[in-house]
Design a protein that fits this description.
The structure holds two protein chains of two kinds. Among the domains of chain A are: 135 residues, Probable tRNA modification gtpase trme, domain 1 (Gyrase A, domain 2, 2-Layer Sandwich), CATH 3.30.1360.120; 78 residues, Aminomethyltransferase beta-barrel domains (Elongation Factor Tu (Ef-tu), domain 3, Beta Barrel). Chain A is globular and about 65 Å long. The mean pLDDT of chain A is 97. The N and C termini of chain A lie far apart (48 Å). Chain A is built from eight helices and 20 strands. In chain A, helix 2 packs across helix 7. Chain B is α+β, with helices and mostly antiparallel strands. Chain B has one domain: RNA polymerase II/Efflux pump adaptor protein, barrel-sandwich hybrid domain (OB fold (Dihydrolipoamide Acetyltransferase, E2P), Beta Barrel), CATH 2.40.50. The longest helix of chain B is centred in the last third of the chain and has 8 residues. Classes of the chains: A alpha+beta, B alpha+beta. The interface between A and B is medium-sized, with 21 and 15 residues.
Chain lengths: 366, 122
């Protein structure tokens, strides 16, 4: 039985079509349709219900030590009221989940995790917490994302203080609402964690703004692919190390050769041995979308060597052409080179592109 | 006088003698959402009833379209190459997919009429 979002009735009233994702019955599209929802987010402001994502609070005198054990960075020097992209590794250096960890206080952190990973993340953090004077608690919340060039203006009407945040800064309001200037579309925007009681009125007020439309998971996926942002379970998983996934930038250099975090030794060995694959963007030359799972080849001929795989792909409404993210052998090509994707038994020519396909419009102040 | 039949897989087939036009229903295009690409068969290709012969790609996913009856493809809708959204705009007219010459008209007997199809999709 799928779990239901606290704001389900609002989505039903907005005409959402639902589908299963991360154990929840999630809004996939609204009457606008994926294409217009996507473009509206890039031009105005899109409101996403992402309450399938899990909020876990880590609190206590050794909260920073616990985070620094679970994740490959030094949480003790993380500035207050900032969020950070990171992940948890297993003992083999594979990725348990990717996360945003925000520092809310000297002894208090908020971990935002993928919905599909919520249970295993919580169990993993609880296991680590046995070694530390800190507690790990799941917080039930409605989590909304407001994304797009008009997001700041729309949110300022309800939360005037929101305008003082820059990209990856976070704050808590007096009523406990969590606010972060971040998102998953490449656009400026905010993620807002509210108590389920307060969320309905808040969402209604936001969406009553003419600039704001509800946006479903369908457009969330095309927006994040255009922005070159990875999705756990598609672009990486427990068998993928962060270097192969193109995410090693999130580990400080001094922690790449070793550290006290889980998976440090395995990661150091992987990096010392050299990673064979790299992450790339792909632009199919034709109109046919090339999707996750499609195998990549060096040439069009049947005997051309296999060089990699597409991890995410689809149509990019802002680009006006198909877009994909994949991994290939390091020496198999660079930006501008042509490689081939197998789609239903046919080889489709694709050019290797730099990511992102659409420039990020994060608000960094000024 | 042409008669239109419907399949459980949300195709329509409009039959006039041995000739038939095939497409997906308005209900199907609405479920799929914005269509961005259609992979069509070649004219002259033989297709069997139930074969996945066409792929319709929306922003979200790729979906197969099945041949409602056995026959030979006599034409495909080339306009879809430049304008796949025709299927969203008019699934049951300008957004047609392929024309077939039927091998065996008795295969039509198991298909639905419009009233039965509408009852099925609610």
């Amino acid at each position: 039985m799928a779990k239901q979002l606290p704001l389900k009735e609002l989505h039903v009233a907005a005409g959402a079509r639902f589908g299963p994702f991360a154990g929840y019955d999630m809004p996939i599209t609204y009457p606008l349709g994926v294409m217009k929802e996507h473009l509206h987010t890039r031009e105005a402001a899109g409101l996403f219900d992402i309450s399938h994502m899990s909020h876990i609070e880590v609190r206590g005198p050794q909260a920073a030590n616990l985070i620094s054990r679970a994740c490959p960075y030094d949480a003790s020097v993380q500035p207050l009221r900032t969020g950070r992209y990171t992940y948890m590794l297993n003992d083999q250096g594979g990725m348990i989940d990717d996360l945003i960890v925000s520092r809310l206080g000297d002894e208090r952190f908020l971990v935002v995790a993928n919905g599909a990973c919520a249970d295993k993340d919580l169990a993993h953090l609880e296991q680590i917490s046995a070694d530390f004077d800190a507690t790990v608690t799941h917080i039930p919340r409605v989590f909304l994302a407001l994304q797009g060039p008009k997001a700041a203006e729309a949110l300022a009407k309800l939360i005037p203080a929101s305008g003082t945040l820059v990209f990856m800064q976070v704050t808590e309001l007096s009523d406990g609402t969590f606010l972060s200037r971040s998102g998953y579309t490449g656009e400026d925007g905010f993620e807002i964690g509210l108590s389920p009681d307060a969320a309905e009125d808040f969402a209604k007020q936001l969406v009553s703004d003419p600039a704001v439309e509800w946006i479903g998971l369908g457009a969330r996926d095309s927006l994040r692919i255009e922005a070159g942002l990875p999705l756990y379970g598609q672009d990486m998983d427990e068998d993928t190390d962060p270097a192969t996934a193109g995410l090693i930038w999130a580990v400080p250099k001094d922690l790449r050769s070793g550290g006290a975090y889980v998976g440090a030794q395995a990661l150091a060995e992987i990096l010392a041995g050299g990673v064979s694959r790299k992450r790339i963007g792909l632009k199919p030359e034709g109109r046919a979308p090339v999707r996750g799972g499609s195998v990549l080849f060096a040439g069009e001929a049947p005997d051309a060597p296999e060089i990699g795989i597409v991890t995410s792909g689809g149509f990019g409404p802002s680009c006006g052409h198909p877009v994909a993210i994949g991994r290939i052998e390091k020496s198999a090509g660079a930006a501008g080179d042509r490689i081939y994707a197998d789609v239903r038994g046919k080889r489709h020519a694709c050019s290797i592109e730099k990511l992102p396909f659409v420039e990020h419009n994060y608000f960094r102040g000024g | 006088m042409a008669t239109t039949y419907f399949t459980e897989d949300h195709e329509w087939i409009r039959v006039d003698g041995e000739e038939a036009v095939v497409g997906i229903t308005d209900h199907a295009q609405e479920q799929l959402g914005d269509i961005v690409f259609v992979e069509l068969p070649e004219a002259g290709q033989k297709v069997g009833k139930g074969d996945a012969v066409i792929v319709v790609e929306s922003v979200k996913a790729a979906s197969d379209v099945y041949a409602p009856v056995t026959g030979e493809v006599t034409a495909v809708n080339d306009a879809l190459e430049g304008e796949p959204g025709l299927i969203n705009d008019s699934a049951q007219s300008d957004g047609w997919l392929m024309k077939l010459r039927l091998d065996d008209a008795s295969q039509l007997e198991g298909l639905m009429d419009e009233a039965a199809y509408k009852a099925m999709v609610g």
